[in-house]
């Protein structure tokens, strides 16, 4: 399936309503997802430290085993990141945000724009970022259902998250404008979790 075919299929699966328009669609970046969600850099550091310690104590066999184990683990994690990125699609319309996700079992989650109270942008560098969404009112979204498209450690009140997005600040502004076009529903201001200042558009109230 080509990249464009996947775009078209994601929209078709959303079953758009009458006069509903697609504003934006995108997917996680595989390399950033591997680093951010599957902690590949941390794992590489861990096995590297074990290998260096083995060398320091003259245990070359142990060092070789650590290197091989590290390569196998990293290969598995990168494969999972590739599968997660390949099976994920985010579609924003003028009425809702659609998350088509699921590495093993495909799921389609619809978030009406009127239910999105706030967005939190985390800057991951090089224009990439995560956008966590605060949902207004009760919902039945579980952490396991959303993972890895969920804000880490928010187990009791899961927050959907658009992960490892290229041009994340631009996407956040598009999302903010789409939500602002919906009838006001007592929203919060969009904030940033990143050390760097958030883009201007993200500091404005959604409605």
TrEMBL record:
Please state every residue range assigned to the domain named YdbS-like PH: 87-174
**Record's keyword annotation contains Lipid biosynthesis:** no
Please list every transmembrane segment annotated in the UniProt record, as residue ranges.
40-57, 63-85
A Pfam family hit:
bPH_2
InterPro entries reported in the protein's UniProt record: puhB_PGC (IPR054839), YdbS-like_PH (IPR005182)
Keyword match Transmembrane: yes
Keywords, sorted A to Z: Membrane, Transmembrane, Transmembrane helix
Superkingdom of this protein's organism: Bacteria
The protein's name: Photosynthetic complex putative assembly protein PuhB
Read off the lineage from the record.
Answer: Bacteria, Pseudomonadati, Pseudomonadota, Alphaproteobacteria, Sphingomonadales
């Amino acid at each position: 399936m080509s990249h464009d075919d996947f775009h078209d299929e994601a929209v078709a699966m959303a079953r758009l309503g009458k006069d509903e328009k697609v504003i934006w669609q995108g997917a996680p970046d595989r390399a950033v997802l591997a680093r951010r969600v599957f902690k590949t850099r941390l794992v590489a550091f861990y096995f590297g430290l074990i290998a260096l310690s083995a060398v320091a104590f003259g245990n070359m066999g142990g060092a070789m085993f650590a290197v091989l184990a590290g390569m196998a683990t990293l290969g598995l994690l990168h494969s999972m990141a590739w599968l997660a990125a390949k099976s994920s699609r985010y579609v924003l319309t003028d009425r809702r945000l659609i998350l088509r996700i699921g590495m093993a079992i495909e799921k389609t989650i619809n978030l009406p724009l009127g239910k999105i109270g706030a967005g939190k942008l985390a800057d991951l560098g090089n224009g990439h970022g995560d956008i966590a969404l605060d949902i207004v009112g009760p919902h039945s979204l579980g952490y396991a259902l959303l993972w890895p498209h969920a804000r880490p450690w928010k187990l009791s009140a899961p927050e959907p998250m658009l992960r490892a997005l290229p041009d994340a600040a631009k996407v956040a502004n598009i999302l903010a404008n789409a939500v602002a076009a919906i009838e006001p529903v007592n929203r919060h201001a969009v904030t940033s979790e990143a050390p760097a200042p958030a883009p201007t558009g993200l500091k404005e109230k959604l409605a």
